[in-house]
Write a structure and sequence with these properties.
About 40% of the residues lie in helices and about 15% in strands. The protein has about 700 residues and is α+β, with helices and mostly antiparallel strands.
Length: about 700
Amino acid sequence: MSAEATNPEAHPDVRPELSRRGRTRLDLRRLGRAALLGPTSRDRLPDAIGHVAEAHRAHHPDADLSVLRRAYLLAETSHRGQMRKSGEPYITHPLAVTLILAELGAETTTLTASLLHDTVEDTDVTLDQVREEFGDEVCFIVDGVTKVEKIDYGAAAEPETFRKMLVATGNDVRVMSIKLADRLHNMRTLGVMRPEKQERIAKVTRDVLIPLAERLGVQALKTELEDLVFAILHPEEYESTRALIAAHAGDRDPLPAVADAVRGVLREAGIAAEVQVRPRHFVSVHRISLKRGELRGSDFGRILVLVGENADCYGVLGELHTCFTPVVSEFKDFIAVPKFNLYQSLHTAVATPEGYVAEVIVRTRQMHRVAEAGVVALGNPYAAAAPDAAADPYEERVDPTRPGWLSRLLDWQQSAPDPDTFWSVLRAELAQDREITVFRADGGTLGLPAGASCIDAAYAQHGEAAHGCIGARVNGRLTSLSSVLADGDTVQLLLAQDASSGPAVEWLDHARTPAARIAISSWLDTHPDRAAATTTAARAPLSVVGARGGGGNAVADLPDAAVRLAGCCTPVPPDAVAGFVVRGGTVTVHRVQCEAVDRMRAVGRTSVTVHWRATADCRVSLVAESFGRPHLLADLTEAIAREGVEVVSATVEAPVEQRVRHSYTLQLPDAAGLPALMRAMRDVPGVYDVSRA
């Protein structure tokens, strides 16, 4: 946008990188200055468009540059007479933005839209003119960027502004690519702004745009934005970090020697690889200093190893761990398990004989391109959908590269009740820096932020139908809805048949995703009676006690001794049992596997031989785990009665997360009928487990 003045000396300490062809490539931080170079006579194009063409051809050798020249002519003519605050021609801004994207490898359509991204908003050019001259695809992107650019960065306007940005990104990720490059150039040129405005723009960049750049995988933009924001919001820490880096520059850097050793190891192993030393950017140095305290020479950079194939990455890893001492805790495999933002690499660290610890990143050249440029490196993700897009370019298109987090944001932003909720939840969602993948019972997958619970999985899979979720099985085991999921878990969600079921207030304590929290809050707001009911004190367990007691058909080899079956393990024939004399001379009978047997022996209780009478009746305690529903106790009691079993006592605990625990002491006429009784109880709807106490 036109609000800032150009400051070409923003980061003079950054070194240029080498391109694939070995020539010196313009550094991204110098592109704003490069846009100002060259003649500006009307009979020829300035050299700045030549920089765009050169950078574009480095990534796309066969690209048609004529469309870029036509786009530049329209942009330059349209913006003629417009000036930036610095007094520079306004055309320098779209040129600088386009150069940034060209260096990242953006395809021709994105660069064309980037050159024109301010024309519809700031000049007399219309969308119809853009469509007629450059086609529907360019028009679609320019329109998306124009809607995003209509921003008042006041506090009240920010939520709706970024809601529009989110929707525009969901329709075409290239819109956000242009917006991020636009913000980077503007952040480089904030020098003439008032300090309070610099701080406000930097905070918005920190809270939303940097996390979005991270989510889209555009690390080259994200790292520089971080440094620029760091300098504005934390000037003292920035200066101390700058001084730290400057002091290190005068010391001997151990990383080049480590890189030479790595090259030698890989050369002997016959692995073709390119080994580079990559300095850390300012924020990275600051973070590592907070983590490790005093920094050593190897902490100011990392070693990057680029290879041709995925298999070579693991070959390099094997050689490094064989020839150097690996730091096992630093190993991470993001190739087998990529990050949510398309990032893939192997991370490790090795200790050298001199005592330095060097961090090493191993990736293929394609992985490197995606790691630096993210979605920008993927070309045109809508090429297959071009016929449909041409028919109606303003319909939302399915992005085959759209990450799960973006789909989730697009879903929940529609149901956010108000701008403040949207804004606070958006920042919380973007603050999540890891994503997990869990498998559904039907074979599908769910992408969730790290720390998500079964409640989040329920709303991600079933939407508002998750209000009736009454339980979950994780990796085959029944668990509470509050259980936190791990990457790779298999989740089976159990829904109640009762349509009136709803979430409990406590669910909000365990919901991490915006979709779940907004849905739960909305339901509770419309059902205040349910909210009040779930916050009342828990009721005491309901108990029903019969008249019978004693030792059943257990007989102790101790004359006149009373016999009692232990309630902790409730032995029944033909269980192997042991008896012990307790206070009052009573003999308690336990199953030999019961933990109480070892305690009895440890305290010196007298052991008594116990056997079963010839009669088949017995007493047993069973625990039934079930989901709460009306008439459950009556149905369970009826099932027990149909088996001819007498209820000695029954206890029903208060529901917890819609789950109920029933404990029964039962008198069976024949111990052989116990398996059939337990099966009959499990067959009662809502009961998911029956076990011996």
